């Protein structure tokens, strides 16, 4: 894995946005794999500005998000669909019908997972996947214990993830306990991966991902077997390396 250590959150966001913009410029039909959470917000802000100021064109691209909470309708203020609309989709020229986020309130969730996996395959696979990392080393919502051969499925969130994500909800009781998430195999199927981490709270997970053994107990460590991963971390997130 290629490791890039930058000074702070701002630099991390700029570097990541630059890589995405280069990819979309080189291949206008890029299939983007996108992530949510606090970490990529700055990267999306930079991408919006690259689109608005420098004309980076997303009109032929498409996107697949990693995950969505089970039970939240897409218009729910805390759904990942809403997050993506607000942080990115509303501000760039990626056609709405080319943006894909799992439907967390589908009546038949199993069918939804299958459909999502097939849609990724039909698009020719993901060209560049953006990832954050959970404090416990999760990627997407692949919590510790997620096996290498997992594909898009319904997963249970761990207590630590529910607690970490409670900051976005009015109370912890409102945080969904399940999500639809791409699996480890789905993520490893991406041609390129960029993983972002910022802040001291991520230092332990970053060190286990890069320097620890490859184990499902730290799902991000399974990225060690992927041939094209760039990890962009700020100094605080790199502090345990
Ligand atoms: C969430 C998301 C992940 C994200 C992680 C870290 O649960 N499902 O995709 O990477 O947690 O979030 P944050 O960037 O807010 O620390």
From TrEMBL:
GO terms for molecular function: glucosamine-6-phosphate deaminase activity; identical protein binding. PROSITE patterns: GLC_GALNAC_ISOMERASE. It comes from the Bacteria. Keywords: Carbohydrate metabolism, Hydrolase. It is an enzyme of class 3 (hydrolase). Its EC number is 3.5.99.6. The active site is at 67 (proton acceptor), 136 (for ring-opening step), 138 (proton acceptor), 143 (for ring-opening step). Pfam families: Glucosamine_iso. The keyword Hydrolase applies. The keyword Hydrolase applies. Residues 12-226 form the Glucosamine/galactosamine-6-phosphate isomerase domain. It catalyses: alpha-D-glucosamine 6-phosphate + H2O = beta-D-fructose 6-phosphate + NH4(+). GO terms for cellular component: cytoplasm. GO terms for biological process: carbohydrate metabolic process; glucosamine catabolic process; N-acetylglucosamine catabolic process; N-acetylneuraminate catabolic process. Pathway: Amino-sugar metabolism; N-acetylneuraminate degradation; D-fructose 6-phosphate from N-acetylneuraminate: step 5/5. Belongs to the glucosamine/galactosamine-6-phosphate isomerase family. NagB subfamily. Catalyzes the reversible isomerization-deamination of glucosamine 6-phosphate (GlcN6P) to form fructose 6-phosphate (Fru6P) and ammonium ion. This is Glucosamine-6-phosphate deaminase. It comes from Brevibacillus nitrificans.
């Amino acid at each position: 894995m290629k490791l890039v250590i930058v000074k702070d959150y701002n630099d991390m966001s700029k570097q990541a946005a630059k890589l995405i913009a280069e990819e979309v410029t080189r291949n206008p039909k890029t299939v983007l794999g996108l992530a949510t959470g606090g970490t990529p917000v700055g990267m999306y802000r930079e991408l919006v500005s690259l689109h608005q100021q420098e004309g980076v064109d997303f009109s032929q691209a498409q996107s697949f998000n990693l995950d969505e909470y089970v039970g939240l309708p897409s218009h729910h203020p805390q759904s990942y669909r809403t997050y993506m609309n607000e942080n990115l989709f509303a501000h760039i020229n990626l056609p709405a019908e080319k943006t894909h986020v799992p439907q967390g309130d589908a009546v038949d969730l199993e069918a939804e997972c299958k459909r999502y996996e097939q849609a990724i395959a039909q698009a020719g696979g993901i060209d560049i996947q953006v990832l954050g990392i959970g404090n416990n080393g999760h990627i997407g919502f692949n919590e510790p214990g997620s096996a290498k051969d997992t594909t898009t499925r319904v997963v249970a969130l761990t207590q630590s993830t529910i607690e970490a994500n409670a900051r976005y909800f009015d109370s912890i009781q409102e945080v969904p306990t399940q999500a639809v998430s791409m699996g480890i195999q789905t993520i490893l199927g991406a041609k390129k991966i960029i993983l972002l981490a910022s802040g001291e709270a991520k230092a332990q997970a970053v060190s286990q991902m890069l320097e620890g053994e490859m184990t499902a107990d730290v799902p991000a460590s399974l990225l060690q077997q992927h041939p094209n991963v760039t990890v962009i971390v700020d100094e605080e997130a790199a502090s345990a390396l």
